[in-house]
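In practice, a research group might receive sequence data for several interacting partners and want a quick structural hypothesis before committing to experiments. The following worked case mirrors that situation: the sequences arrive first, and a predicted assembly follows.
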Amino acid sequence: MATHKFFLGEDVLPRRWYNVLADMPTKPAPYLHPGTKKPVGPDDLSPIFPMGLIEQEVSDKRWIDIPEEILEILALWRPTPLHRALRLEKALGTPAHIYYKNESVSPAGSHKPNTAVAQAFYNKREGIKRLATETGAGQWGSALALACNFFDLKCMVYMVRVSYQQKPYRRSMMHTWGAEVIPSPSDKTNAGRGILAQFPDCPGSLGMAISEAVEDAATHKDTNYSLGSVLNHVILHQTIVGLEAKEQLKKAGEKPDILIACVGGGSNFGGFVAPFIPDKLEKKSMRIIAVEPSSCPSITRGQYAYDFGDTAQMTPLIKMFTLGHDFVPPGIHAGGLRYHGMSPIVSTLVKDGICEAVSAEQLEVFDAAVLFARTEGIIPAPETAHAIWAAIQEAEKCTKTGEKKVIAFNFSGHGHFDMGAYDAYFANKLVNFAYPQEAIEKSMANLPVV
Amino acid sequence: MATHKFFLGEDVLPRRWYNVLADMPTKPAPYLHPGTKKPVGPDDLSPIFPMGLIEQEVSDKRWIDIPEEILEILALWRPTPLHRALRLEKALGTPAHIYYKNESVSPAGSHKPNTAVAQAFYNKREGIKRLATETGAGQWGSALALACNFFDLKCMVYMVRVSYQQKPYRRSMMHTWGAEVIPSPSDKTNAGRGILAQFPDCPGSLGMAISEAVEDAATHKDTNYSLGSVLNHVILHQTIVGLEAKEQLKKAGEKPDILIACVGGGSNFGGFVAPFIPDKLEKKSMRIIAVEPSSCPSITRGQYAYDFGDTAQMTPLIKMFTLGHDFVPPGIHAGGLRYHGMSPIVSTLVKDGICEAVSAEQLEVFDAAVLFARTEGIIPAPETAHAIWAAIQEAEKCTKTGEKKVIAFNFSGHGHFDMGAYDAYFANKLVNFAYPQEAIEKSMANLPVV
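A structural hypothesis for the assembly, expressed as tokens:
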């Protein structure tokens, strides 16, 4: 029997996070204060983040120890398995070897708890009682609800209204772990009330929900804000995924030629590929591909510029690929990828030509999802299916050239709470979104002047 | 860091199923033909089952090789991890060691694919093109849809109407793997039409859906019937769970004092505990506990007698614990446990005092489910929560006595498709069902005379 799965024993759970900032040829530009346009310091961030995370955000140490309290919780489901997708390979008739790292085995169903647990820990350690956050598809909100539950913190989730309605069971999951969940825009914050006054039926967006959660944290003394992607410390926590995958590929006797992950805010991609960046810097032929939806094409059609992280312009300015902070993407089913901006680490890696980006249409993404479900079994989240689509593309190139490339992608989450999207696909109700260039240009015209 | 998870490497995936019939002091009574009341032979079963499975049903060989084709598919998710529930232990303040075998990591989310894959394989090998089956909560239907997809068989699922309505996403999951799903009772079969004529709004039951699936198989030449529990060959296939758990407990340096699993038809319980039966026969103090819902108390309040497996009296007569083949349990959320009968192997083990049974009320089961979700992370299926409830009961006894017992239970599935039940629990809408004794006596008055 051919071997499908590569385990790491308990003993080899990584004990340190890898900080890719230490090895990047170009460092990301500093965050700027939205008022003064000067680089922000720790004091600017401390009203909403704990010092433990602020230090990680700007650290240039290559390795950072993972506290024992975090490891003990991650060990509930980590290390996660690396699978060889033998049945998918066979269906494609490709000589390529396809591997996927299975992050869907976490209790929340994705990679998100890797950073949620760390963020809850540092906040708890610094006396915080409550965390506020936003969630799109619900993966991040579920992860933070789970993590807050473990550290006995209250959790307040602003959930993008369209997802709140489409995915009631994500809400139920958050309730089960004890979190409070409300649809955003809400009447709980000035940001939310302002938007509702203008657009009473507003479906919401990640940018708006971030504004609400940041305001909640800034106006409650016992509350901090928690972000599930974009920032450096989030990618740092997610490197446990890439570190495990690297060991497991070694165990499988393989060196990856192509690494693939989907990108929304960039933490899934960043965490998976960061530990391989030193290899890429040595071996130029290696390719590292970020996959985004063509309906929210931050990297492939956005600008590399300073922009706000949120709609209400409350966050620091971030140098990143952006579609403009008031860009509202269409309601595609990969809700976790509907963000106007992109992690500064990922943006810089792309800008430097170390990583590349492609975009995929919704329909071809679901074709790939169903092929994966029917060959490998697991039903993928729509976000994850973007990575699967790109892996299939690359494997099919190998079929033509006869090359035996080693392709590894991050299976970031399962689709158990996305079955409505599969229903729509089978009922031929899913469509692609050709976003008009003028619409993108319009939102980019509102970029802040720095 | 304490160790939570016990892995088995790929190399130690069990290669043989364990047939507990070889070691049972009393063998189950033979199946009887519903007309002649004589023991059935292979010819009676061959219209709906392949010979490969019929042979296993009556085999007394202790070990049966698992064909390579089956192992290759099981290896997509097997071996499954065994976890030490350290956080649950801590929450309970118990000196007991609690372990759970995590079957929720299969693509369908439960232990069910272990036998679905085997059944699809043997049917395919004997030229069958299509399988018909019933499903209650949807776990079994999903598993067979997955397995048929792997072996390129058509799959027809009769889904109990109340579940079909309550759990649309289980349907979507089956569609994703290519199965056809219709609510039962349906107008596709004589059995279904007969019931609908009498009760147009009938919510359905497993017994009715079995009648429909059996009729479908008996009336289509290319179609066989597939049953997800009750029968000996189903328990045989599920022993891979217990075999792995036994090895993993050994690896953890533990010998179980108490084994626990929930029972509906008995295959989850049987597969988990069967490999430990020889140990129990040697060490009388070991306890093996089946947990059933008090709303469908086949063992704890039923009779040990010959009865039909289905409502329409089409199946052979089975000597088992039964509530009567026309018993219709209330619509509790543990749909997989709503079956009037019980596996003859499990029934005989209980009758002989080798295993014992307890029943649990719906509300206390959900209390246990939420405690588990908040300590160990994973949200359990309502069925699985019955086992958790019993494990907590036993652990709390240890708290009182100070005994350091080793308790192991089967975490048979996750609750990702049962979140509506959690919503009802949090909204205080769940109730217990005190089933009146007269109602049970009424359905048992219709037991066939043998």
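Before designing any experiment, note the following. The radius of gyration of chain A is 20 Å. Residues 67-109+238-444 of chain A form a domain with the Rossmann fold fold (CATH 3.40.50.1100).
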